[in-house]
Q: What sequence folds into this?
């Protein structure tokens, strides 16, 4: 074994963790001392690890982990690999740093609370790679010990996402293969519910990349009771199967992996994938092309990438979204809103970190301090009044601090009785003295904003434009300096809650990454009716900050910021960093159940 040979290690273990702080400290110390990079996810119910480093270092890590009795029987999967390059793929996959987080779930099985959550102890029976292969090879023959009995009762179920199955999957003659075609793993329970009759009375053979996703999914199928008992899963996943059958066996194409390798194939070099645009054989995801609407990975060949940088995946096309609804593109990034899609995400929270160890050591948890940023043409007093119900319901766990933005705006009114400003004079009436009205402010302003505030009212030079926020891209530096001062004078703050333009400002802060850590150290952000401004310099890589996104699901009820715009902002955050709460109202922050419960659940992670 070469000392300089690089490798990747994957393993997971479901077990009750008695001391998360101690386990967190172990991983932090051990991985850093061995120079390992990648992801470590810890939960009260187990661990999920994908790390890379020198093979000798990985072997030392495995030995250290094995010394803990909690990991007895763990399947450690090691593969040699090239060194991760500091490129887009390595950054996106988290292989340029070490990320250790405490999470609620090791993998997010559902985007909404399940009435009967599955118990992993009820997972399907494990089949080794050889056993799995034998079942497929012997389809139609009787097997012992509750194994599949005939090909009419046998179905293969792929538990992976659509972009994974595009480039590789199992194929066995005379055996039905079910591909749910899901965008994300948390959509799988809904697919199982909708297609349960295809599984009832069948012997279900499940598989995924390394095995962990099958644990919860197989348990969920079995929890449905009579007719769903016979569920089996490939132990060690596709990775172990390809090690056992290097020619590919019944697996066709490549195995998509969530690290810098992107995919791993067999000795069979045939290509299963195809370019989304021209249909030519293609299975290379290294360019990281994504659907303009839902942001899942798409296969675009080199030639088609030169012709266009806006793509629509097959799922979005299926649901009526095409290129006619794609917003303008500037500097290679979306400049405006996404079109409504069929995603049903309510809350995807499994990877939100509680940032152990606690900042307070063993002391009793204090209230969280949250700095609140109002929207455009509002002020602290107005936002505080509108958020009174929220503040009241959070008072036991959080203190909300409201401040005015630094850019003071002039008094303006529309020339009709539809003016929204409560101080604006109706048509034909005299304006009230400005001193009787509270000043309004903004975090970001239009490029033609002069900074000088008129002492009296003036009429708006055009009707209300719901897309005006797209042109308000100046003034960030002034607001940043102002917020640094607020953090210094009124801090510390655990997080920021931003509404509308305030959410856009908070997102821009998050996009700065570690550049601001010394002066504005955020543990989380809450972005309500937020949007991403078309500022290419801020969106060069996914944002790594725990975030809660709250917005209305009906675009007709929010005249200012549509749900598609807020959903796109959520997509700019690193996979697993964003929790989404959609509500049926308009341009507000909902404070009734279940939305309030979800907000509290998010915040309790940081106490």
A:
């Amino acid at each position: 074994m070469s000392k300089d040979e690089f490798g990747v290690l994957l393993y997971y273990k479901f077990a009750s963790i008695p001391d998360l702080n101690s386990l967190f400290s172990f991983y932090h110390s051990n991985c850093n001392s061995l120079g390992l990079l990648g992801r470590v996810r810890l939960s009260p119910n187990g661990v999920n690890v994908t790390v890379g480093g020198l093979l000798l270092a990985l072997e030392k890590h495995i030995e250290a982990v094995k010394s803990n009795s909690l990991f007895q029987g763990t399947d450690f999967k090691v593969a040699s690999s090239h060194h991760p390059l500091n490129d887009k793929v390595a950054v996106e996959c988290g292989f340029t740093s070490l990320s250790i987080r405490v999470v609620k779930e090791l993998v997010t099985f559902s985007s909404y609370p399940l009435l009967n959550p599955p118990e992993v102890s009820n997972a399907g029976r494990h089949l080794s790679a050889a056993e799995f292969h034998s079942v497929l090879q012997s389809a139609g023959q009787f097997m012992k010990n509750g194994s599949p009995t005939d090909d009419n009762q046998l179905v293969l179920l792929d538990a992976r996402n659509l972009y994974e199955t595009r480039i590789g999957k199992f194929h066995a003659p005379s055996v039905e293969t079910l591909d749910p075609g899901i965008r994300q793993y948390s959509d799988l329970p809904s697919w199982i519910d909708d297609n349960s009759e295809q599984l009832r009375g069948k012997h279900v053979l499940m598989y995924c990349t390394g095995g962990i996703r099958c644990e919860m999914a197989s348990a969920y199928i079995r929890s449905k009771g009579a007719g769903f008992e016979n569920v089996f899963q490939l132990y060690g996943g596709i990775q172990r199967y390809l090690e056992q059958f290097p020619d590919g066996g019944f697996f066709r194409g490549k195995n998509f992996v969530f690290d810098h390798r992107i995919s791993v194939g067999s000795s069979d070099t045939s290509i299963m994938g195809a370019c989304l645009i021209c249909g030519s054989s293609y299975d290379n995801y290294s360019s990281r092309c994504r659907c303009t609407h839902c942001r899942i990975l798409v296969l675009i060949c080199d030639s088609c990438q030169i012709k266009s940088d806006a793509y629509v995946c097959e799922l979005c096309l299926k649901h009526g979204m095409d290129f006619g609804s794609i917003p303008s593109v500037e500097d290679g990034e979306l400049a405006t809103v996404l079109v409504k899609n069929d995603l049903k995400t309510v809350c995807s929270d499994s990877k939100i970190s509680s940032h152990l160890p606690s900042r307070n050591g063993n002391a009793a948890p204090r209230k969280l301090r949250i700095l609140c940023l109002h929207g455009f043409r509002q002020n602290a007093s107005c936002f505080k009044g509108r958020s009174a119900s929220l503040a009241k319901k959070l008072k036991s766990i959080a203190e909300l601090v409201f401040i005015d933005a630094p850019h003071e705006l002039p008094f303006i009114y529309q020339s009709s009785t539809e003016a929204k400003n409560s101080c604006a004079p109706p048509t034909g009436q005299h304006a009230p003295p400005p001193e009787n009205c509270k000043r309004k402010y903004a975090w970001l302003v239009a490029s033609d904003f002069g900074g000088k505030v008129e002492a009296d009212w003036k009429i708006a030079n055009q009707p209300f434009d719901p897309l005006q926020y797209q042109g308000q891209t100046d003034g960030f530096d002034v607001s940043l300096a102002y917020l640094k001062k607020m953090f210094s004078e009124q801090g510390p703050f655990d997080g920021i809650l931003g509404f509308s333009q305030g959410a856009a400002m908070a997102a821009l802060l998050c996009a700065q990454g570690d550049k601001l850590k010394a002066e504005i150290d955020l543990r989380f952000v809450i972005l309500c009716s937020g949007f991403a401004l078309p500022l290419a310099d801020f969106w060069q890589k996914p944002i790594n900050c725990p975030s809660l996104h709250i917005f209305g699901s009906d675009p007709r009820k929010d005249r200012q910021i549509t749900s598609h715009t807020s959903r796109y902002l959520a997509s700019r955050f690193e996979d697993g960093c964003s929790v989404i709460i959609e509500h049926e109202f308009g341009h507000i922050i909902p404070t009734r159940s279940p939305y309030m419960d979800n907000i509290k659940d998010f915040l309790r992670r940081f106490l």
Residues 142-146, 324-364, 414-430 have pLDDT under 50 and may be disordered. The domain at 6-102 is CATH 3.30.70.100 (Alpha-Beta Plaits). The longest strand covers residues 6-14. Residues 179 and 297 are 17 Å apart (CA to CA).
